[in-house]
Design goal:
alpha/beta; 15 helices; Rossmann fold; 14 strands; 2 domains; seven-stranded mixed beta sheet; about 35% helix; globular; single chain
Length: about 425
Amino acid sequence: MKKINKTQLKVIDDKFVSHPDYFAHLLRWQHVYKWFWSHVPHDTKIPDRLKLSILDLGCGDFQLLKFLYRNAKTLLIRKYTGVDIKDLSDILETLPARCPKSFIQADCSEEVIKGNYSMVVCFEVLEHMDKDSGIRLLKNISDGMSKNSVAFLSTPNYNRISKAANHIYEWEFSELESELKKNFIIEKVFGTFASQKDIKQGLSGSELTLYEKLREYYHFTFLSVIFAPLYPENSRNCLWRLRKKNMNNAKCEKCPDLVHSRKLYPFGKPTWGYGKSPCKVMFVGEAPGKAGCGTTGIAFTGDRSGKFFQECLKECGLTKEDVYVTNIVKCCPENNRTPYPTEIANCEKYLIQEIEKVDPTYIIPLGAPATHFFIAGSMKILVAGVYAGMFAHQERIILPLYHPAYALRIGGMKEYKEDFKFRIKMIQQLEDKL
């Protein structure tokens, strides 16, 4: 049976420092404002088509709109639509006339509105509904987004110990991450507040020393929001910055063999990359593998090659959230054959879209097809054989590497890990010189 809780979060209470979520909520709006400031032209005379349109799901008493208004940014908003289960029309009437605003009283988990909003915001709503309703809410967020828009979602992480009395269902971090990847690219995730225990378990060395020094002055309520962004998985609450997953290739039928073969595997459709975006480092493989990406829909996961790749990242002190990973071909060839040149050519535009979005400084192609894609006609910077060389490609640095599957096939895992570390070290040295 469907369950909805109508509690609204207050910005502040009489005790002022009673709970870190009050401060976290203010900082969530400030993060949206920060993004707003860096992505929207500051000229108030810009044409309407370049101004933001905002969908605020679970808008409460319009605190986000008020925050933007107080910072003189409503002039750069073309349209604002607030949606809430409570009737807030009387509050709407008290807002300044120059705010471009409208309100819909509705359950955010029901089909409310479909549109091309350039920003969708949903703060502290997901936990106030049952899981099935929450899944529908996530779909509504996606449906409200345009092709290039951004979404901001905040909700608690269930810690398997307790949840707030007015929360119906709290998602575990990995559970929500998995659900979001079905419709979104996770651009960034920040912890918004955490317990003292959760923060300290992630600190060591100079970070722990800094924490202890700040603890001498600050109440923990403040430290809980200062350090939480560094440790989202350990935090009690997270803010997820999302992009709509570009599924322009979902119905692509340019390659008859791939249209047939992708249906043979569980995922059954073209895949997309995953990871940090924008990002300094981008890995590009050749195609989904039948036991890996062809099953999971996520590049370099699920099979031996994917697990070995993740292991190599870990030994370099990296995770899949620190890099971006994709393939030159988006569909799974039958029996893991090498993609044909025509298939690579047909998928080129999708890879270019990813590169433009991720904007990497360094690209590490994995295996011969991906390497050839980037170095054909490129200028070699360092001559030492293709797989030890460094190339320039459209103002990006290319560092080719064998495919992890090749290392597994010939038993050269130790040597491969050294080559992998060498390239990451080269990148770090280059970054130090900049």
